[in-house]
Amino acid sequence: MHRLLATLILAPALCVAEEPDMKLTMGHYVYSGGVGSNDINLRNTSALGNIWAGYYESRPRAEAQLRGGWDHTYNLSGLRLSPSVQAASMGFASFSAQAEVGDSWFVGTGLGRTNLRPYSNLNFDPNDSWMMSAGKREATGEVYYLQQVRDNRLNPDQRHLHAYYRTPLNNGDRVTIDLLYKTGLVADTQIHKWGLSASYDWTRYFVTLAYDPKVNFTTDNMFRTSAGFRF
Questions:
Q1: Would you give the end-to-end CA distance of the chain in angstroms?
Q2: For an engineered disulfide with 215, which of 41, 101, 147, 222 has Cβ 3.0 to 4.6 Å away?
């Protein structure tokens, strides 16, 4: 679990079946020009929350980083509060906190902060940011919402708008679609770009394919493939 904000957003409210305690995810990312990088992540879920550890490496870019973190959701009289902390090699540290209210219809807000030390951002949303979301959960298990993530520290022009949809299938599998619209300055040029992520979950296995233009507000476009299993 790499994401400071996006991993936690509404996660406890998706109303999916209870899952195994362990989750292993392997990711492969291809930048413009064919440069690739890899990531492996192991997460444990217990009464203490989610505890995870991961390793990211891009040999062509001479980048490598160990990382780990914790997050949990507390239900407080109708308010769902989700704090998280993260640390990584090269001295990186961060935290986030989110709050959500509502059952069928819901709204949420959150804030993330880092210490600005070197970090390969596999969250892909701005980490020093605030977020707002609103959506609906159906009795059938469908979930859809809009979410705005906006940098509020070094690059306040950088914004992500997510349109998210998740639905269970009759055989117990799940499909998740995340449509992304991003705006902000890249190399002194204002961009307006669309991205897309699609995931398919079986009982134990899952796979995600994504296209992210101007990833992390750089000049690179990125194709991402992630797959893994629960045990």
A1: 16
A2: 222
